[in-house]
Specification:
2 strands, transport, transmembrane helix, cell inner membrane, two-stranded antiparallel sheet, 21 helices, globular, mainly alpha, membrane, cell membrane
């Protein structure tokens, strides 16, 4: 490792660090700056941007945006609210499961964010400490993308692992049960956390000062007017998901072609997802009569496009560096695959805490793990270690702290000593261990 190696590494780390603090478009822009410095300033050959992953994410965002325009997302939020009110005393378990279920179905944490205020109020009305339900729900919903067939993070994982011959179905067979079990672990870790609501000093202070009044069984239902084709759009969307999983998991359903030399090429899984999602979006537009101005006017499209730029820039930057030094890194860390593979998990978690995007963390760390010689089944099983973006509170944590009118959910005074740190760490640790065990069975 010569001086140039350390100079190039410093450029990458600086861009990742600054971009991580900026987040979103800033992360992608910082990655673009890193590529410019490496290529134009230091003469490094540019790596290939993750085109396949970007196209999958774009297709999924397009389809989900159309679903939102048709009213499908609002319908799912309404269903989530109804489910939450059925078991108010068990809200610490039900809240995370309901919120994350809808994230899994839709592929975006947006749908859960609309439900968090309901979790807070249902818990308070049932006299359950809201901190318990809110913290577990935010963590589980945020990491729910690891079990969603339609999430950007899953798109990244599928695109990376398809190069190793791993099918869509095999990835889901590991991540879905891992997520469910880890969610239960995270929920149980806070089930008895803190004092009971009526004994909490901050809550007592707010009641005494008049800042909080009991809802006394009041109606928590948000105002909602269902669009005529909302239900149909959800059905079409779910069918699109099923087709993607089925065709991507059963080789016999995938067309293949033989060239003049006799080599046979089968339709790639990333291309299946891309074409099926775009086709599904078109069917929703035509059948549900979605107006053109609704195609890209929702929050899903805007946040999704920001995610695409973030992945594009930072993944291109890190890919350029790793491609330049693949042999050096492989030689230096060749023993990690056999002697201490879980050290990689710790490194991936540390990276994810400053990247603030599981999709970007996946795009960076999974190819690196493969270059280190780690088996793809190990990386899939321990994927939970790439979801450390909860350590430094972000939008969901800050917003949900405000949703808790009782004051039990707190951000802390030392940045990381907030209400979400315990369920988050429990989820990552348990998910990594459980996923590793399940991968041994699936593969």
């Amino acid at each position: 490792m010569d001086l140039m190696f350390w100079m190039e590494l410093a450029v990458v780390l600086l861009c990742v660090g600054i971009g991580g603090r900026l987040g979103g478009l800033g992360l992608g822009a910082a990655g673009g700056l890193g590529v410019c410095i490496l290529v134009l300033g230091l003469g490094v050959k540019p790596g290939e941007p993750p085109v396949s992953v970007l196209l999958i994410i774009t297709a999924v965002i397009a389809c989900t945006s159309i679903l939102q325009g048709a009213g499908g997302l609002d319908l799912l939020v309404r269903l989530a609210e109804k489910l939450l009110r059925k078991w108010p005393k068990a809200i610490t378990i039900v809240g995370p499961l309901v919120c994350s279920t809808f994230v899994i179905l839709v592929g975006t944490a947006y749908v859960a964010f609309a439900v968090y205020p309901v979790v807070a109020e249902v818990a308070a009305s049932a006299k359950v400490r809201p901190e318990r339900a809110i913290s577990a729900s935010v963590i589980s919903a945020g990491i729910g993308v690891m079990a969603s067939p339609m999430s950007a993070a899953m798109a990244a994982m599928v695109g990376i692992m398809s190069t190793q011959g791993i099918s869509f179905g095999h990835i889901l067979a590991v991540t879905l049960p891992t997520f469910i079990l880890a969610t239960l672990c995270a929920s149980l870790s806070v089930f008895w956390r803190g004092k009971e609501l009526e004994d909490d000093p901050e809550f007592q202070r707010r009641v005494a000062s008049g800042d909080y009044q009991w809802l006394a069984g009041g109606d928590l239902t948000t105002k909602y007017e269902r669009k005529p084709a909302a239900k149909l759009s959800v059905i079409i969307f779910m069918l699109g998901i099923l087709v993607s999983i089925l065709v991507g998991s059963v080789p016999a359903l995938r067309p293949s072609w033989t060239n003049a030399e006799g080599a046979t090429t089968m339709l790639a899984i990333p291309q299946i997802i891309q074409m099926v999602m775009l086709a599904t979006a078109f069917v929703i537009i035509m059948v549900c009569r979605v107006k053109p101005e609704q195609f890209a006017s929702g929050s899903v499209f805007r946040s999704g496009l920001i995610g695409v730029v973030a992945v594009f820039g930072i993944a291109w930057c890190t890919g350029t560096f790793f491609d330049q030094h693949t042999k050096v890194l492989a030689d230096a860390f060749s023993g990690i695959a056999t002697t201490a593979p879980f050290l990689f998990c710790i490194a991936a978690f540390c990276v994810s805490t400053v990247i603030f995007s599981p999709t970007v963390s996946t795009t960076i760390m999974m190819p690196l793990g493969l270059k280190f010689g780690l088996p793809p089944e190990f990386l899939i099983g321990t994927w939970a270690c790439c979801f450390g973006d909860f350590v430094i509170p972000g939008g969901a944590q800050i917003g949900c702290t405000a949703f808790d009118r009782t004051g039990t959910t707190r951000l802390g005074t030392y940045v990381i000593n907030h209400s979400y740190i315990r369920p988050g760490l429990v989820f990552v640790v348990s998910g990594t261990i459980i996923g590793w065990c399940i991968s041994k069975v699936v593969f």
